[in-house]
Amino acid sequence: MFEGILVGLATVLTIQNLLLVFAGCLAGTLIGMLPGLGPISAIALMIPITYALDPASGMILLAGVYYGAIFGGSTSSILINAPGVAGTVATAFDGYPMARQGKAGKALTIAAYASFAGGTLAAIFLVLLAPYLAELSLGFRSADYFMLMVLGLSLVSAFAAEGEHLKALLMTILGLMLATVGTDLTAGVQRFTFGRMDLIDGISFLLLAMGTFALAEAFMMVLKPSQSANNSLPTTDLGLDRQEIREIAPVVGRSSVLGFLVGVLPGAGATIASFLAYGMERGIASTADKAQFGKGSLKGLAAPESANNAACTGSFVPLLTLGIPGSGTTAILLGALIAYGIQPGPRLYIDQPEIFWSVIVSMYFGNMILLFLNLPLIPYIAKLLTIPRTFLIPLIGFFSLTGVYLVSFNPFDLQLMLYIAVCAVILRLMTFPMAPVLLGFILGGMLEDNLRRAITLSDGNASFLWERPTTLCLLVLTVIALMSPLLRMLMKSALKGFKDKQNASRL
Amino acid sequence: MKPIALTYITSLFALIALFSADIQCAERLDKVHFLIPAGPGGGWDGTARGMGEAMLKSGTVSQTSYENLTGGGGGRAIAKLIETAPRQQNTLLINSTPMVVRSLQGIFPQSFRDLKPIASVIADYSCFVVAKDSPIKTFADAAEIFKQDPRKLKAAGGSVKGSTDHFILARALELAGGNPRKLIYVPYDGGGKAMAGILTGESQILSTGLSEALDMARAGEARIIGVTAPQRLTDAPDIPTLIEQGYDLQFANWRGFFAAPGLSDANYENMMLTVSDALSTDAFEAVRKRNGWTLLHHEGSEFYSFLERQEQEISVLMRQLGFLR
Question: Per-residue confidence of chain B (325 residues) as pLDDT tens digits?
Fold first, then answer.
């Protein structure tokens, strides 16, 4: 294995390749920053260029673009609350509040470090465990994915402010309802399209995210200027002190492991990984820390960022070991690899180890160069927020509108987004949280598809819910997650009772 | 504002300009504009861009541009081509068999008759796949299991119920003596996840396009037990056809190009010529090989009657199988 890594390093480490990865990272970051253009489009745009290169150089360029685009997506989430890809929604929960507190630079630094650490740890897991994990990725069936989505939904309480659980729940249901618009996969029937061709493919994630987050935020800035970003605060505070590093290091570790494992599953992916990591961290945080979540918590930013990147690397496990693309991005990469004459699969590791290793080493280099490239750029990127509000608000409007339009070229989408943004503003003025809408929307589609598949596969029996150990485990976890506030309360009172008794007996 | 920030912003604008530069029109056919009814990265996109690459490299045209227009199951791109026909004199719309299926289902009101069919270029045959350790060795094995208990043969597919993946397998099982309406079809979100479905063992057989299945089957985890090609393919000679196994089922999922309605005769001829020229170049051969496509060239009126024939076949199939009333 060590030899393999050295071979990979030797193929990858040339001046040309280093320049390519640098160019790839820069292009990826720029493309990723535009809402609507995520890793998939960035890689699809770059693939024709890579045909002129040899496989190792081509892969290294694509790796740079890939990680760059993911990081770019986080940037727009943090700075202007515009998560362009689903994987960076959770980043906005705490990243954007940090930016509003004038800590944009610090938030970007944490995002960069957490992404890097997540990617690095996941790359190590990939090298050490890939052959064994192929089993895991095939151990998950539709019923298990369904339970995983339910577990994801049960985290909704994590996104609710104190005493606002009912509102969060209502918003989740709204998200689930929006997810049903369009052609239903299982029966091929059109639902809630009102006979409009524009709605046949459903509401796009980007449109909803831009409407409820970015555009609504721009409206809120106009309506309530006092609550928006404070420009007078310095944004130069970039470094992390030792205390902060100590605080987020375990978070990054845990989230990377979780993210990697979720990424390995072909039907899950980075979005669920980031939500689960966010929910988990909030669940195990101390009461004081918990109150910070959603208001600019360092942990709340580091968790989804590292999980997101770890999951992206994890999705290479089924691709490289089984030849199965588990996500849109890996499907495109599979095409690129095959165009080079590389056939991913269990034999790749044995037959062509130098290619296997150069793919992994190049992924790793993409990740590393990105860190070195972006750290010096962060102060400049963060300066975006020092633009006067009179420019910043139209700029957010411009980016969210063009972002949505450039993906679909459909004016109807702009109308719909505007209506959604207006509704979102009204709901936000009544202190309804918006994150659960997106959570319900993202998980809703997958939840329904997997549930209906599971029911079809079990011939209509509900027994799929407990028949398999994996499903049962997830079911138990979900129940625990839902009951945890209750359990904690019971435990507290029991403990109190016990202490009282002790005190009484002492007397 | 610091110069670097300016650089970022100007780059952003440049990128946006790059994307919007797609909208153009000209009189001569040294430019070709491809209209793709799906996002970047899919089958339609790959075919259109591959074709464009071949045209540029061989010098048949001097400029190509691409426009991805998603929505309405592909219907929005068709609608746009018809609405803006006078301005689309050198636009080629890429499409494939699902267009015929979706017009039949009434998902969009237009059909190929509302456009000017130029040429089909490649074919992707359908095929059936099982996991490498599956007891199913031939299609007869699968049919036998199905006839004993349809619930024992769950069929995975990467597309929605009622699509070609679904009814081709139903038709093959009918030819083997089973009741096609009893087939339990389990749709997944894309071919990759459907493949994972047979590898986890939750479904027993996968019905999908050959080029997609080959990419994954070459990894050694799955076996292709039958393809709907008329004879064995030179690129994949070990895959048995359904015909040689005694099931008379032939089906080509074509991909081809259409022009706007009301195109002048001169332009129509020019376009057919441009496409057929591009097909015979080495550059296209390289693209074709790289993607594992099979050449299927019908042009003009021949393409039109091919489409009519396929529409007839598909509508009979779909009616028999209960997908159309």
Answer: 455 555 555 555 555 544 444 433 333 468 899 999 887 667 788 889 889 988 888 888 888 888 888 777 788 899 889 988 888 888 999 999 989 998 898 888 889 999 999 999 999 899 999 999 999 999 999 999 999 999 999 999 988 888 889 989 999 999 999 999 899 999 988 888 888 899 999 999 999 988 888 877 877 889 999 999 999 988 888 999 999 999 999 998 999 999 999 888 888 998 999 999 899 998 899 888 877 788 999 999 999 999 999 999 899 888 888 877 6
**Under a CB-based contact definition with an 8 Å cutoff, are residues B115 and B82 in contact?**
yes
This prediction's pTM: 0.83
Partner-chain contact A200 B184, CB within 8 Å:
no
Ramachandran angles phi, psi of A203, nearest 5° = -85, 135
Contacts of B281 (CB under 8 A, 6+ apart): B54, B57, B58, B60
Neighbours of A460 (CB within 10 A): 10
Distance (Å, rounded) from C-alpha B37 to C-alpha B44? 8
Is ipTM > 0.85 here?
no
- Nearest Cα neighbor of A352 from A332, A334, A370, A337 is A337
Residues of A in contact with B192 (CB under 8 A): 266, 324-326, 330-331, 334
Selected residue of A380, A401, A405 to mutate for chain B interface (largest B Cβ count, 10 A):
A380
Domain boundary assignment for chain B: 31-122+253-320, 124-227
CATH superfamily label, B124-227: Periplasmic binding protein-like II (3.40.190.10)
CATH code for the structural domain at B31-122+253-320:
3.40.190.150
**In this complex, do A48 and B186 lie within 8 Å of one another by their Cβ atoms?**
no
Dist. CA B95–CA B36, nearest whole Å? 8
